[in-house]
Amino acid sequence: MIWNRTGLYSSIYSNNNSFCTLSEDSQNITCFDLYSDFTRLPPNKSVILGKFSSISLGNNHSCGINAADSFIYCWGQKKYSPLSNENPSMENIPKKIFSDKIFKTVNVSSENSYAIDSDDHLWGWGDSSHGQLPNIHLSKNNESNHPEQSNLQLIEIAGKTILSVASGDGFFCALTNEASTNNNEEKSGHIYCAGNNSFGQTGQLNVGAKSTVLAQVNNKRYTELAAGNTHVCAINLDKKVECWGNNSFGQLSYNPIFTPYIATPTPILQNENPDFAKLNFKSLSLSNHSSCTITTDEIPYCFGDNTFGQLGGDPKDGSLEIKYRDGQNYYAHFKPKKLMNSRVISLAGNSRATCSVTKNKDLQCFGFIQKNTYSSVSVGKNYICGISSFNTHALCSSFENNLSDILANPWSASLVTPWVSSQAFTQVSVGIDHTCAVSNESPLNSYCWSNPDSSYVTHRAYPQLIASLTLPMKKIVVNNSHSCAIRKEDGALFCAGNNSNGQLGNGTFTSSLNASEFTQVSLNNVHFIDLALSENATCALSFEHEVYCFGSNAKGELGIGQPYLIKKNSPQKIENLNLLSIVGGKEHFCGIKKTVLAADNKVICWGDNSEEQIAYSSDKINKPVELKNTQNITQLVANGSTTCMLNNRQEAYCLGKNQNGIIDPLRISEKFSSLTRVQAEKTFKSLSLGEKQACGISTLDNTLSCWGKSR
């Protein structure tokens, strides 16, 4: 999921419920509440006041280092922290704590916090029941009561200074500073751990016990250190990654069936790519049950839990399926995989998502699979956009499954983790090089954007308002070379783009900039409710359900029974035809006939029939004809030389050209002159037909099901 650019970010942090970012310019904290309101995409946003150089998020409280005075400020709940919760409304207001010391870094876990002061000494506070505050001596009585230590406790490690600290569920590890006096040598040291060792996460062999005394994990030196809930990873002097602790989801890069845990630092396994062994790493980001590491070239690789797509791609792809006692299937992708091609400067994750700040200072996220549900969808040549099932934001994706190295935008997001618009759109339409959408905003509510790889369109990678549409629009439709929109207020029709055949309907043959320079169609006192575009013609449906067409009639697209070679640059009414809806293919149109009884609402088509998409013997038909066996049809879609529809049982049928196997994957070269059931095992709420793929919204869960060829 790629969020639209809303600011320039410098770093990102996470806990189980939120992602927080530091902006590059103001150092303010912006937090996204991921799961409290599933109807909002992107999620609810809030701002933590104050300027911070770094922050750390815990599940109960969070802390940061103030950029101005280097004191620790915390916010959230009192549990395991020195905060006071006498006034719950103050929970999101940072409060200065321990004002007698200044600090360089702070690390917050679920029950503990650790900080390194300006003299590189380590301090801790919070729960001490597992020995994670090793200088506190516990009795059997207070062990069971999970004692709190809200006051700072100095944690000494043989008189050594500390480079960094990382903490998880009831344990922590610290990296000492033991580099030589050579100024050119990178800072490094040994790792010491204490606390809960139920999975070997403290690096000690007494797995299942707790380590109440700080102990060195081995004799090797490391430069970086990070911890998840129950596992740890570090980068050694050779710039290679070693991990230890819990491996139940493959977060140590080993098959969890054969290796459920590892008690000592162990090099991660290589993936199938022979070049992976040559990679060097410089930083780490560990979440609940996943691990990510960033190369010296700033490319992220991840392994572990991918149940929600938090490591990118289809959760099942390349993963080991694990069924736990809760009955849910989990997917462990234990072989390191590239998260994205783009370079990143900061990375953070939790049990359901991973987010990064790219080199371009954008925010890019993976996961949230359970949110990818739709109310409507529009399929183009290589791209697809839909409106979320909550009728809010547009979810846009690429069938090509690659992420741009330069810019994260709607045209390069993968289908599994789509880009999400910041605008709340109600309808969207995708062409080859353009996408347009309408919102509930006023007075300007029409947006369009274009594929940045196209050489002949204005590069608008993100949605931009269309200034020529000065009042709110009800619907907008995009085709390969022209676009049209219906105004909400009075049903007036506007078009833009190629007009060589009069398909803009403004009485001229003068073209304009597609999806930008809209002009009104020349027809007074007619209010339109629906419209459809072919390659070189336009048809629209009036409030009285009458049909008007204009543009090319080369294949009979105007439906008025006149010679095929004519062009009309103003609307022509098709006599004696009333439709409920209308759709357009490359050179043909179809609609659902308006009758007294719904069961009699058969499909009417006209235009090109060279691939039998209208199911008649003639190659072209310049008057509307009725398709056989099409009673009880509720929705129509068309693209190219193919026509598809849904019946009242929500079954999908198609006829015409079998482009890319959309009708039958085993009979690609054939054409179908009669209705053929497609995706027979599925039912759909709605369909959309593209050049390479068809997609339907499942009646079961509102998710997308697509078929055909992706390339």
Key phrases:
single chain; 711 residues; mainly beta; Methylamine Dehydrogenase, Chain H; 3 domains; 7-stranded antiparallel β-sheet; 54 strands; guanyl-nucleotide exchange factor activity; Reg_chr_condens; RCC1/BLIP-II
How is the topology of this model organized?
Blueprint (H helix, E strand, L loop, with lengths): L1 E2 L5 E6 L3 E6 L5 E5 L10 E5 L3 E6 L3 E6 L5 E5 L18 E3 L5 E6 L3 E6 L4 E6 L12 H5 L3 E8 L6 E6 L3 E6 L14 E6 L13 E7 L5 E6 L3 E6 L4 E6 L14 E7 L13 E6 L3 E6 L4 E6 L14 E4 L5 E10 L5 E6 L3 E6 L4 E5 L6 E6 L3 E6 L4 E6 L20 E12 L3 E6 L6 E5 L13 E2 L7 E6 L3 E6 L5 E5 L21 E2 L7 E6 L3 E6 L3 E7 L14 E18 L3 E6 L9 E6 L11 E7 L6 E7 L2 E6 L4 E6 L13 E8 L5 E6 L3 E6 L5 E5 L3
Parallel strand pairs: 1-33
Antiparallel strand pairs: 2-3, 3-4, 4-5, 6-7, 7-8, 8-9, 10-11, 11-12, 12-13, 14-15, 15-16, 16-17, 18-19, 19-20, 20-21, 22-23, 23-24, 24-26, 25-26, 27-28, 28-29, 30-31, 31-32, 32-33, 33-34, 34-35, 35-36, 37-38, 38-39, 39-40, 41-42, 42-43, 43-44, 44-45, 45-46, 46-47, 48-49, 49-50, 50-51, 52-53, ...
Task: Give an overview in words.
- This protein has 711 residues and is mainly beta.
- The chain folds into 3 domains: 3-137 and 151-367, Regulator of chromosome condensation 1/beta-lactamase-inhibitor protein II (Methylamine Dehydrogenase, Chain H), CATH 2.130.10.30; 371-465, no CATH class; 471-707, 7 Propeller (Methylamine Dehydrogenase, Chain H).
- Helices cover 1% and strands 47% of the residues.
- The chain is built from 1 helix and 54 strands.
- Strands 1, 30, 31, 32, 33, 34, 35 and 36 form an 8-stranded mixed sheet that branches. It has a 7-stranded antiparallel sheet with strand order 41-42-43-44-45-46-47, with no helix packed on it.
- A hairpin with a 4-residue loop joins strand 49 (642-647) and strand 50.
- The longest helix is centred in the N-terminal third of the chain and has 5 residues, at 140-144.
- The two termini are 22 Å apart.
- Pfam families: RCC1, RCC1_2.
- GO terms for molecular function: guanyl-nucleotide exchange factor activity.
